[in-house]
Amino acid sequence: MPSSAGHHTLNRRVFLRNSLGVSAGLIAAPALANLWQASEAKAATAFAAFVDDYTTNTTANLTPETNAVVRALGGFAEIWKTGDAWNTGAPLLPEILRANVRYSERVTARRTDAQAREAFITDRQHQSYSVISGLGPLAELYRTGAMAVTAITSAPDGTPSGKISDSVPADAPTGSANGAGSTSSALGKVAELVNTVRGPFASSNPAKFSYQYPRPWRMNENSEVVDTGRTDEFGFPVYDSAVVVAPQLLRQRGEDAATDGGFPSGHTNALHLAALAYAYAVPERFQEMVTRAFEASHDRIVSGMHSALDVVGGRVMATALAAAALADPRNAELKAAARRQAAAYFQAKTGTTADTLFAYAHSAGTDTDPYADRAANERLVEPKLTYVLPRHGKSRDLTVPKGAEVLLETRLPYLDAAQRREVLRTTALPSGYVLLDGWEQWGRLNLFAAADGYGALDADVTVTLDASLGGFHAADTWRNDIDGPGGLVKKGGGTLTLAGANRYTGGTVVEAGVLAAGSKEAFGRGDVRVNGGTLVTGDHTVRVRGGYAQAGVLDVTLDRGADAALVVDGRAVLERGSKLVVRFDAEQAPRSGSTVAVIGARSLQGRFAEVSVAVDGWTAEQVFTAHGVAVRLRKK
C-alpha cells in the first residue's frame, strides 16, 4: 500500500558500503559493533536535537552518526549486535531477546480466528484510515467530511491467492481518497496534516536496514535464524521458529529476507504518527487516539509479523518524528489551520460549541465506542509501554527532549511550553528500561498519562484557565495522582478539576474561577486557601490535610450522611465575605429539618457572610458546632 513507512527493495551491502565508507562484506561483526559504539558515544554529545535533525532519516544515512532516528533507537544496540548480513546478528542481552521471541510465540499460539482477522485488517488497511476509529462518536463524521475510504473492510476466511493492498473502492464518491482522506475535502487540512506528519522523513526503512533484526517468524528462542531447507506451500523458506503468522497474511510476508527487517515496526510507526496527528487536530479525543494506536500496533504481534521489541521501536520513533514534524516552523500554519478546521467542522455537524464538543465526543457507550472506558484504555496501554523489557537500576530524572512539548499543545493549551515539558517529565516512565533509555529518551514519554496533567508538582505551579477562550481553556480535568513538594495556584475564570489521589505538599490556592475536587484527596497534603473564585467539593467528602482559609465561595453537595463535606485536619478560618453554596445529592438528598455538616475542623473561626441553596424551595441556616459548621435545611 502507498505509505512513507512502506518497504523498499534495496541492497543491504550497498547501504552499508555507502554509510560506513567500506565494503560491508569485509567487516566482521565485532568490528561493526565497535563502529556502532563509537557512533553512539559521539551522538550523545555532538549532534543536534532530534527535532532539528529529523530530516536526516533517509536511506542514504544508516548510522547513528548520520541518522537521527537511528540515534534515537540506539538503545537497541545494547540488546542486539548487528552482523555483516541479515542473518548473522547476535544477542547482547539474550534474556531480553529470548523473552521477546517467547512472547510472540505465546501470543500467536493463543490467537483466535477473530483476532487473526482483525490483525489482517490492521496489516492491510491504510494506517491513516485504521486509526480513525479512535475518534469514537466523531469517527464517521470524520470519514464523511474527509472523504476517507478503504477497500479493506473484512478479512478472508483463509489465505488469499495473492497480495492485497488498500485502495479507493470503485463505488466510492468522486473525490474520495485512501488513508486520511482528500486534502480538498471539508477536512482537507486535517488530512494534509496527517500526511505531513507521515512525510518523506518518517520511514522506518533506514533503521530496519541499519539494525538488521529479523522478523520473529524467522527466529528461534535463541535469536538464531535457522533455515530448515524446506519451503511451505507458498514457496517461502521454513525457519526453525514457533511463531505462527496469521493464515490471512502468509502471502503478505516479505520475500527478500535481507531487506525485510523486523526492528522497528513500520506499521507501528505509521499508526502512531497518524494517531498523534489526529490527536493534535482533535484533542477532544487525545487519549483515545493514543489508545487506538497502541491497540492496533499490538495486532502486529498478534499477526506474527512483528515482535514486541519491533513494536516498541516503532512507537519510540513515531513519538519523536511526530514531535519533529509538529515543531517544524514550516508546518506551523498547517497545524493551526487543521486544528481550526476540525473544531469548526465537528461543532457545526454536532450542534455543539467549543465548550460542549468534548462531552459530545465522549457521549457514546462501549457498545459503539470501544474507547469509551478510560480505565480500560489505561489497562490496555500501560503494559504495552514496556512489553518484555525488564527494568534495572535506580531512576534517573528525565530531560524532556527538545520540542516534545508540542505534542500537548492543543490538549493542554492553557499551559505554556515549559509547563507542558514539566507534565511530560513528571508523567514519564522511570529510567532503567534498555531501548527506552536511548539517545534523548523519547521512549520514556507516556502521552496517555500526560494528557491527564501533571504527575508531580516539583515547584509551585500557577495555572490560568481563561473561560472566554472555550474548550480546554474553559474546563479540564487532571486525573493523575500528583505528588511533589510544590503547590498549586488556580487563576482565571475556567474550571479545573483535580481527580487524583494527590499527595503534593505545597498547598492549594484558588484566586479565581473554579477549582473542583474529583476525589477525596484532590487537594493534596498541604493548606488550602480560597482567596477568590469557588472551591467545589462535589458529591463526596473532601479532606484538607492542613489548614483551610476562605474568602471566596465554597460549593458543597450534601447528602444524608454524617460526614462533613469538607474535613479539615487543621484550623478552618472563614474570612469576611466568604460564601457557601449548598447543593443536594440527587440520590440521597437530605430531609427537610435535618442538620448536615459542612466543615469539620480541629477548630473554626468566623462565619459565612452568605448561605444559599441551589435548589428551588429550600433554605439553609448555618449552625456552629464544637468542631466546625453545619447547615439546618428546611423546605419552604
TrEMBL record:
Domain Phosphatidic acid phosphatase type 2/haloperoxidase per the UniProt entry, residue ranges? 187-326
**Where are the annotated segments for Disordered?**
153-184
Q: Where is the signal peptide?
A: 1-33
Compositional bias segments (type: Low complexity): 172-184
Q: Which Pfam families match?
A: PAP2 (PF01569), PATR (PF12951)
SUPFAM superfamilies (alphabetical):
Acid phosphatase/Vanadium-dependent haloperoxidase (SSF48317), Pectin lyase-like (SSF51126)
Q: Is the Signal keyword given for this protein? A: yes
Q: Does the keyword Signal apply?
A: yes
**Which keywords are on file for this protein?**
Signal
Database matches in NCBIfam families: autotrns_rpt
**Name of the protein:** Phosphatase PAP2 family protein
| Species whose genome carries this gene | Streptomyces akebiae
